Amino acid sequence: MCCANTNTAKFFSSIDEIPTQIWETLNCTKNSYFHPDFLKYIEKNHPEITFSYIVLVDKKNIPTAFACLTIINFELNSIKNDFEILKTIGKKLHVFPDKKPLKLLICGNTFVSGEHGIFIRENQDKKAIIKELAESMKHFVNSDKKLKKQIDAFLIKDFTKESLTTTSTLKNFNYHPFSVEPNMKLQIHENWQNFDDYLASMKTKFRVKAKKAFKQSAAIKIKDVTLENIDEMLPKMTELYEKVASNAGFNLGVFNLETYRNLKELFGEKYILKSYSLEGKIVGFVSGIINQESLDAHFVGIDYQLNREYAIYQRMLYDYIEMAISKKLKTINFGRTASEIKSSVGAVPQDLTMYLRHQKTIKNKILKLFLQRVQPTPFQQKFPFKNLEIKYDK
Fold it and tell me: Which domain of life is it from (predicted)?
């Protein structure tokens, strides 16, 4: 699916169509999320999603920015927990369709929380770029009569607090901002040379909790998932991931774990994949990527029936921390969900904002009122450290 280029934008329906020269000019491939092979493998392993890409250009036709577009069918029945009442209200007000999925055009990374879907080249006017992006997305849909009828709404995700002065221009295009679950982020303190230093920096209560989790999980065998053993592990990993995904408040898409094979080939040791086993049976796994100076936690799988007894998830969080310290990284992005337990290991919330616009003018006005009621699930922030200055991004 593609449309005619404009003076400010080039459109591509596949990563393979984008010339190498564009990637070189943008100079974005040091960031793993904007490596063409990373994007190609996401595209290849999710044929049920329509992928398109925008490259913005200046008056000299030089690339200035890159954005990922996906078209998904968002099943409203997948909305659970605190979002149930909002779904019901949305249907009653006819903002959401009654019997069919909501067809969404998303700008951003569907599977990863954070600013990983729009790349802006250095020394550009970011506000002007966001304006051009909104215009290009509108052109992308309006240039195809069939697509224009199909798309219910536009979603641009996820922006940190620092970006909101830039993205506020989206309101001029009738987009409505709303807050979503925060990314839980841990800064690795410069004094933490090893995991024992991390434990020593904690208040007694939280240090005792950590040691108890290690004791509970002592019988668990942790093993690297490699290209040699991934085939035998993927079926069970997929089963465990699907249990976690079905528990989430909502998902924009189900991740195909076959993608892990490609990501391990591409990134090698920089792509983290570990299995957790009890008596030879896989009871969990973690995944993540070392992206520049951060460890970004990706999807996990957990056997919930054994989680409490063996402290599986808590052990996973400590293992991410141990990995980040040993690799001398600066931050861990734990992502959304389970905010309270993540705060108990030292993570603090990084607020994230999305922008949504309905295709129909009247429904879009109703949507604004509806989104004002959308709030992230409140949680009790824990403060586990004794004397450390930890930034609280609120």
Answer: Bacteria
Name the residue type at position 256. N
Q: What mean pLDDT value characterizes the chain?
A: 92
- pLDDT for position 394: 40
Asked if the structure places residue 384 within a domain, the reply is: no
Residue 1 in any domain: the answer is: no
Whether residue 228 is found in the same domain as residue 171: no
Tokens of residue 151, six digits = 């798309």
Please give the residue range of the domain that contains residue 250. Answer: 185-349
Q: Are residues 192 and 169 in the same domain?
A: no
Tokens 């995700």 identify what position?
Answer: 157
- Among 70, 67, 65, which Cα is nearest to 103's? 70
User: Is residue 124 located within the same domain as residue 268?
Assistant: no
Asked if residue 382 is part of any domain, the answer here is: no
Quick one: what percent of the chain has pLDDT higher than 90? 81
Parts of the chain with a pLDDT under 50: 82, 391-394
pTM for this predicted structure = 0.92
Block residue for tokens 């536009």 = 154
**Residue 18 DSSP SS3:** coil
3-class secondary-structure state, position 221: strand
Nearest CA to 313 out of 281, 350, 331, 286 is that of: 286
Contact 323, 128 (CB under 8 A): no
In a domain, residue 3? The reply is no
Q: What is the pLDDT of residue 57?
A: 98
Contact 33, 118 (CB under 8 A): no
Q: What is the 3-state secondary structure (H, E, C) of 238-272?
A: HHHHHHHHHHCCCCCCCCCCCHHHHHHHHHHHHEE
Q: How many CB atoms lie within 10 A of CB 89?
A: 15
Buried b (16+ CB within 10 A) or exposed e, 284-317: bbbbbbbbeebbbbbbbbbbeebbeebbbbbbbb
Span 220-236, pLDDT tens digits: 999 999 999 999 999 99
Q: At what angle do helices 259-267 and 230-247 cross, to 10 degrees?
A: 120
Structure tokens at 377: 């699930």
Domains held by the chain: number: 2
CATH number for the domain including 85?
A: 3.40.630.30
User: Could you tell me how many residues make up the chain?
Assistant: 394
Determine the Cα–Cα distance for residues 334 and 327; give it in Å rounded to an integer.
16
